[in-house]
Design a protein that fits this description.
Strand order of the largest sheet of chain B: 1-2-5-4-3-12
Largest sheet of chain B: 6 strands, antiparallel, barrel
Number of helices of chain A: 7
Structural class of chain A: mainly alpha
Mean pLDDT of chain B: 83
Radius of gyration of chain A: 16 Å
Helix content of chain A: 55-70%
Largest interface: A-B, 34 and 36 residues
Low-confidence stretches of chain B: none
Number of helices of chain B: 5
Oligomer: heterodimer
Strand content of chain B: 25-35%
Strand content of chain A: under 5%
Shape of chain A: globular
Structural class of chain B: alpha+beta
Number of strands of chain A: 0
Largest sheet of chain A: none
């Protein structure tokens, strides 16, 4: 709690240019995304194979410079919430925590994080389309591969697991990009 | 001691990560609904209570369909009653109580249904307080849906037929050939019928029903039709693809079926093994 309030105070102080209710907007979208995921997307099977996983956007769209511990905790809780309602026994928790852990490393590998861009949201406008797609696809793929490996219980049927991961990555990325372009475009300031 | 604190402080990020992952793996390993842990019950109750509300709203939109299918089923059942020589009055039917009812049915609703895992689950809106217990079958008017595994106070968790762990004794209606019906983890529309040797003649379009050795469902309960078959690559058995009659995705109203004979048999067995 301290970490979150500290961050949002800091946030409003430093960036008067940006709308200083971004934490509220992010929380609103987090809830909306999770609801859409559980009530709509979990009932849609693409080609009778995979669900689109929009909830990754919650972890992907956290501010660039946000405290690593906060990102980790948010990732864990989001995964856990999806797990409980999808009766998936931990696979979302494990995969989401993993990508929340890796996110800072991947982001710093793709883009520079300096003092001014600390509060930026890693969207299409901020990263530019190329970096954004790299960021998105790498994280989603790692997440889905972990998830499907755990679900299959190992490397049995490995080819099918890999195929499912690639296909699912594509589907989730599509849904995430659509959501972001439609609803979050304004949130991410261009560099 | 101080060194330990310094170590934790320095590496607090990876340590927290590992701790959270361990929690995740703990949840993962409680994953068999065959051991009923407190954690699973808690998840089930949370799941059930929230989705119950949602399901009641969404089921409102299907009332027409449900009414139509109920009338159709009533028609079928009336046919059976006519065939046995009884005259169905509008409000009551005489049942011959000399013959014991082997199967008891209760009605219930599905309030949450997973579809994409390698084992899928169904949450039912009845629990212990509605005298539901484990090992009851879940079926609909035109197919089977699963078996109850875990029953908490208000809700129950069933293992869906779309689960790699699920197996049911099955029979090809036209020929009487027996086999085992299971799921391969791929499409929710098909199950795989196995244990049938190569030499047996099979044809597309033959009907697959529950066989005589099922603990949960009455023999001849419909399941699906044979859509495709092939010689399995690594054994002398056939790989038969069965298209399910029911689309589990849309299933809302189900029967919970209890095989009272089996309970008696189990008690008998238990007595026998206790006496040993």
């Amino acid at each position: 709690m301290k970490i979150l309030t500290g961050w949002s105070l800091n946030y409003s102080k430093n960036n008067s240019a940006m709308r200083n209710n971004t934490p509220v907007i992010l929380i609103f979208h987090t809830i909306l995304i999770i609801l859409v995921q559980l009530l709509v997307l979990n009932n849609i099977l693409i080609f009778n194979k995979v669900h689109p996983y929009l909830y990754l956007l919650v972890i992907l769209f956290l501010p660039v410079g946000l405290n690593k511990i906060t990102i980790l905790i948010i990732g864990f809780l989001t995964g856990l919430a999806i797990d409980i309602f999808s009766i998936s026994y931990g696979i979302h928790t494990i995969a989401s925590t993993l990508i929340a852990f890796l996110r800072p490393f991947i982001l710093s590998g793709i883009t520079d994080i300096d003092e001014e861009s600390k509060n930026a949201l890693p969207g299409i406008r901020f990263l530019g389309i190329q970096s954004y797609l790299t960021y998105l696809l790498i994280i989603i793929f790692i997440h889905h591969l972990t998830m499907y490996l755990l679900d299959a219980g190992g490397f049995r049927d490995f080819f099918y697991t890999i195929f499912k991961s690639f296909f699912s990555t594509f589907v989730s990325a599509l849904v995430i990009i659509i959501y972001e372009l439609a609803l979050l475009f304004k949130q991410s300031e261009p560099r | 001691m101080i060194r330990l604190f310094q170590f934790i402080r320095k590496y607090h990020y990876p340590i927290l990560f590992i701790l959270l992952e361990i929690i995740g793996f703990i949840i993962l390993t409680s994953s068999s609904p065959f051991h009923q842990s407190k954690l699973n019950y808690a998840f089930q109750e949370v799941n059930g209570s929230i989705f119950r509300q949602i399901a009641s709203v969404s089921s409102y939109f299907r009332l027409h369909q449900v009414a139509d299918s109920l009338m159709a089923e009533n028609a079928r059942l009336r046919e059976l009653v006519y065939a046995s020589g009884e005259e169905p009055a509008n409000d009551s039917i005489v049942i011959d109580t000399v013959k014991k009812l082997q199967y008891r049915l209760k009605t219930a609703k599905i309030i949450n249904n997973t579809l994409s895992g390698s084992n899928n689950f169904i949450i039912i809106d009845k629990g212990r307080k509605d005298s539901i217990h484990e090992q009851m079958g879940v079926m609909s008017t035109s197919g089977i849906a699963g078996v109850l595994m875990q029953v908490s106070e208000n809700y129950s968790l069933a293992l869906s037929v779309l689960s790699k762990k699920f197996r049911v004794n099955a029979k090809i209606l036209e020929t009487g050939e027996l086999g085992s019906l299971t799921w391969d983890g791929k499409s929710p529309k098909y199950m795989i019928l196995t244990d049938i040797p190569n030499q047996i003649k099979i044809a597309k379009g033959q009907h697959v029903v529950v066989g005589p050795y099922s603990r949960y469902f009455p023999e001849n309960t419909p399941v699906g039709v044979i859509e495709d078959f092939d010689v399995s690559s690594n054994s002398s058995l056939l790989d038969i693809k069965v298209r399910l009659y029911d689309n589990i995705k849309n299933l809302k109203r189900v029967f919970l079926i209890e095989n009272t004979d089996w309970l008696e048999l189990e008690l008998l067995e238990k007595q026998f093994s206790d006496e040993k």
